[in-house]
Amino acid sequence: MSLPTAFLAAAARLIPAERRFDDPLSTLAFGTDASFYRLIPQLVIRVESEREVIELLKLAGTHRVPVTFRAAGTSLSGQAISDSVLIVLGDNWNGREIRACGAQIRLQPGVIGASANAVLAPLQRKIGPDPASIGAAKIGGIVANNSSGMCCGTAQNSYHTLAGLRLVLADGTLVDTEDESSVAAFRASHAGLLAQLAELGRQTRANTELAAKIRHKYRLKNTTGLSLNALVDFDEPLDILSHLMVGSEGTLGFISAVTYHTVPEHPHKASALLVFPDVESCCRAVPVLRQQPVSAVELLDRRSLRSVQDKPGMPEWVKSLSGGACALLIESRAATASVLAEQIERIMASIAEFPLEKRVDFSSDPAVYNQLWKIRKDTFPAVGAVRATGTTVIIEDVTFPVEALAEGVNRLLELLDRHGYDEAIIFGHALEGNLHFVFTQGFDDPAQVARYDAFMGEVAQLVAVEFGGALKAEHGTGRNMAPFVELEWGSEAYQLMWAIKRLLDPQGILNPDVILSEDRELHLKNLKPLPAADEIVDKCIECGFCEPVCPSRGLTLTPRQRIVIWRDIQARKRAGIDTRELEAAYQHHGLDTCAATGLCAQRCPVGINTGELVRKLRGQQAQHSGTADWLAGHFATALKGARLGLLAADTARRLLGAPRLARWAAGLHQQFG
Question: What pLDDT score was predicted for residue 380?
């Protein structure tokens, strides 16, 4: 369905042409996030101010145009794509303000998570959320997805460390929970909405069975559906509203700024790796470790260890582990070295009775603990690097109750085997019962799609129904799990989510089909192709980790977008489609403006240097290869000639003067040029 002409005209008056994109190259480039879904927006708008967001939302409401907000696009479940209007953060959303000597920090949504931590580091503080994508993910997405990570758990996520929020609702209303005048104005203008939120909270807390279910679900790591815990944790409607925004994935409003309570970043740390002979003994150690002063406990099954055992820098003993081995990577942190030593002693004493196949003792030596963490961090890219060209890497994200973790791991392994995902691995944040399983999947024929559908249906039954767990622990619901939200939560809680959505977004214009959808096959639609393009970039998983360091980011295309467009050009050529117009646009946006520095390779999980592709394509276009070869072989002579030329020009300037020299040169150019 085309966008209304009146909306387009009004948007053109509001946003300069250089920040509105509707050409095929730009819409395809921005229609890609880190998930395995793709929608092509009809219009991409780069916003640079809160006022622009407010006016755009008012326009969208008037003309009933769906909009989706996008920060870094590192989300994995299809939250940051649209086939309507995609509103992308520009460069003017990087405000940060440290408060109370680092106890709090106020951040605009365009700040990269790692940048916030870099500002806080001298104060030995950090933000609570610690997603693996923190080097690329922006605060807007981190809050909107309630992202977490290895050390965050549930206690330090955005929901539990939220101190204040500045937000724009679907009708364009702005409210800042830390500004008394803003709150007073909002209470006056939206008294009805606040009263309805308060009533939803009262009804939910009075429904003892539902309230108990909500509390149970959020004792687990859980990002499936809307944050219903806001209704049982708070009775003040503005508190309910601000906490509902956390994890809402852009479906309830736009997050303009967030204030976090920060958490300690202890300077002393040590890590150990303990390998157990089987999954059962490994998982039985987890509840014991939860009672100890550990900051992270990462589980790695034998498959994940096998996926990295041949990589450079890996210890030789990894290859010799038994087939059923299962490891825990443990980290402890403390304010002083002596306290850290005491903590390590307590931790090891607590699990002294457990059988171990291999033990790498706690070490604070960076060379040792960096090697241990490299084992963990290389597992996901290891699967991506060996996947068949044309397939995608899927990383799913579930939570089992910790007491059922061993059975959960083994049942997942059985499912993966039964559906033929032989390359799949399992790892995760064991303290929370949060498991990631990574597998490769093709979507190029109906049989592969049916295989994926059958597998995910069984996973949903296993995790949500049999074990009462969460289908999404930290990656957000997105389009990926929207069809399964009711299965996990039940009808009563599901209808409560819809009531919240309709209250805050009555026209349904904010990121439709994300989190809540009536389409039970949504997870099987708009699946993203990853066609072969060039062996240099075919392993790209389109995660976007490369983008923050790209010199042309914001000017033309990022490395991820360069690969996306080149893949599409190659696929179109194979299909016999005319690509001349797209290639002409790619010449400037993809090739001419790439600095080819190789910085992207330093951030890429699979080590891709997009600059190598660009240099290769530039080489294929080169028309003066003979001259280039002569220069390469006679560089000293060419350099001497250049020096003489510059010396002659400088002498002429001194003798004739700059104005006369300029007139003389212009005359020569006119006569001979």
Answer: 80
